[in-house]
Design goal:
disordered N terminus, 5 helices
């Protein structure tokens, strides 16, 4: 065996050991996925090493398992709903401001939310809680000189207990047109 082949084999052996150490990266999500792919490919094509391929597959599987469990836990525990409900309340508060400004400009409230979107401003009227592409706007209805606006909540169905309304910090709400839908039925 020539000295060149020994160096080559020694280099390959050291490289293989280094790649085995890459398997430890498999415990870090995303990085573990990428290192797992590298180990799978190099283990199959370059080294023909089943152990390396198994370590790579474990890194890929671990990352998938971690993200799947995070997604599953957030869906089943309501974390997603609680997280987005705060964001939705803030967004609804901004849309109420835009609706009130629209009335100042045009003398009446808009008939629909897309009327708020003119060339000068593009308020976000898309409901963060809605996963349906056909009904992605906040629920808005005008009643003469009053209106109601709300998010359908996590269940995606309007007029249920999880609906989210703006949380306005206005002392005298008689100066604005916003009312909750429950207030409409009682008057």
């Amino acid at each position: 065996m020539s000295s060149w082949q020994i160096k080559k084999n020694g280099k390959l052996k050291n490289e293989r050991l280094t790649l085995y150490k890459w398997g430890l990266l498999g415990f870090i999500p995303v990085i573990g996925f990428l290192s797992g792919i590298v180990l799978l490919i190099r283990g199959a094509i370059e080294f023909k090493d089943r152990k390396m391929m198994l370590i790579g597959a474990a890194g890929v599987f671990f990352t998938i398992l971690i993200y799947w469990s995070l997604f599953y836990v957030s869906k089943t525990s309501g974390v997603e709903g609680r997280l987005f409900s705060g964001l939705t309340k803030n967004a609804l508060n901004e849309v109420v401001k835009d609706i009130e400004f629209y009335k100042l400009q045009y003398g009446s409230y808009p008939d629909s939310l897309p009327q708020l979107q003119n060339d000068d401003s593009r308020p976000n009227i898309n409901d963060l809680m809605t996963h349906s592409p056909k009904s992605s706007y906040y629920q808005y209805q005008r009643f003469g000189n009053k209106y109601t606006i709300f998010s359908v909540g996590i269940d995606g169905i309007p007029d249920t207990k999880d609906d989210i309304y703006p949380s306005l910090k206005i002392i005298d709400t008689s100066k604005i047109g916003f009312i909750k839908s429950l207030e409409i039925n009682t008057k």
